[in-house]
Amino acid sequence: MPNIIFIAPLAAGKGTISEYLSKHLGYEHISTGDLFREIIKSGTSLGEEIKEIIAQGSLVDDDKTFQVLKQKLETLNNNQLFILDGYPRNINQAKLLNKLELNNIVVIFLNLDYDVAKKRALGRIICPNCKKTYNIYFDNLKPKVDNICDECHSKLEKRIDDTEETFKKRFNIYLEETREVISYYKDMNLLKEVNANQDINDVIKDVLKIVNGDKYDKY
Ligand code: AP5
Ligand code: MG
User: What is the CA radius of gyration of the chain?
Assistant: First the structure.
């Protein structure tokens, strides 16, 4: 199986699909957003700085982001498969990543429409403890008990960047900066595309066709 880079707008399902792939296929899920949320929890001045940037819906500085990602990659065993969820988001980040000369990569572009992304972002609730993600608008993604995590029973919360205003800003950054990364990887012949507007089970099936043939257990 290949290592995976997910390129997508917000709320396309990068985290949800990664959670499935790590549970069923043993991938290490590396989300720069999650790494930043951990740094925020640490309460350091760097955490405060990052919190403000995320709350505004802007991107964290490229060099800082790359250092955080690189440090995480260095903790992996040589043969550990991984998913990059949320990196790279602009051409400069893609070029920095290239320097690491990672092998056996497939880049999966999760294509998602604006209105679908908006509904998903505004309906998202997450577990601050185990990071499992839910959605109040989709029956198969609701928690069994309102506002409580199925896995660890913590109280679910909204993300600070899932407001209507921040949504617009984040989607614009995707259109203006991240979409260029798609052409970059297309030119390198690494790109596959999946329609992320579908039901989560169909999206996962399409991703699995790219990753491991066709084996599938329902989400
Ligand atoms: P990050 O946490 O990565 O946010 P994002 O890229 O905006 O992506 P999301 O996490 O919002 O969406 P997702 O694709 O993971 O979707 P999910 O599975 O949750 O980054 C946050 C911030 O950190 C950035 O804005 C930036 O400030 C900073 N940052 C991160 N990386 C950076 C970088 N490289 N450089 C600079 N700054 C960086 O699904 C969304 C919702 O929809 C959930 O509720 C889910 O249950 C539901 N859902 C999923 N799939 C489906 C489906 N098929 N049908 C219906 N509902 C679905
Ligand atoms: Mg995510």
Answer: 17
Instruction: From the options 3.30.1360.120, 3.20.110.10, 1.25.40.10, 3.40.50.300, give the CATH code of 3-113+168-216.
Output: 3.40.50.300
51-75: per-residue pLDDT in tens?
999 999 999 999 999 999 999 999 9
The greatest distance separating any two alpha carbons of the chain, rounded to the nearest whole angstrom, comes to: 46
Residue in 10, 40, 56, 156 to alter for ligand 1 test, most ligand atoms within 8 A of Cβ: 10
Give residue limits of the domains in the chain. Answer: 3-113+168-216
Ion ligand 2: residues, Cβ under 5 Å:
15
Binding site membership of 65 for ligand 1 (Cβ less than 6 Å): yes
Q: Which two tokens stand for residue 146?
A: 């309102």
121 phi and psi angles, rounded to 5 deg = -65, -40
Q: Is the pTM of this model over 0.85?
A: yes
**Is the separation of the CB atoms in 20 and 123 below 8 Å?**
no
Mapped onto helix, strand or coil, the DSSP state of residue 107 is strand
Distance CA 205, CA 215 (A): 8
The pLDDT tens digits for 21-47 are 999 999 999 999 999 999 999 989 999
